[in-house]
Amino acid sequence: MKIHPHNQIPHSYKQATEQAKHQQKPKEAKQDQVEISQTAKEMQHLAVGENRKAKVEALQKQIDAGEYQIDERAVANRFYQFWNEQAGITGDE
Q1: What is the residue-level pLDDT of the chain in tens, covering all 93 positions?
Q2: pTM score, two decimals?
C-alpha cells in the first residue's frame, strides 16, 4: 500500500481556508433596542393628582423664596427605613 501524504496536505489546507472564509463573513451590525412596557406607557399618561400638584407648587415657592428647610435627620431616617425594608430587616430586632 502506497500513501502519499504530500497530496493530502494542500487539499486539507484548501478546505480549512475555505471554511475559515465562510466563517469570517461580516455579520449584520446589531442595534440596541428599548421597549417600554404597556404599564409604563399607561403611567406616562396618568394625570398627576391636584393634591400632588399643589404640594409641589408650595415647595417650589418655598425653594424660590429661600425659605425651604431640610430636616437632615428625617431624610437620613427615611433612607435608613427604606434600606432596612429592602434588606428585610425590621426595627424589632
Answers
A1: 566 655 566 667 777 777 777 666 566 778 899 998 998 888 777 766 778 888 989 999 999 999 999 999 999 999 999 999 888 776 555
A2: 0.35
Characterize 65-81 residue by residue with b for buried, 16 or more Cβ atoms within 10 angstroms of its Cβ, and e for exposed: eeeeeeeeeeeeeeeee
SS3 of 8, please?
A: helix
CB-hemisphere CA count at 13 Å for 31? 3
26-49: b (≥16 Cβ within 10 Å) or e = eeeeeeeeeeeeeeeeeeeeeeee
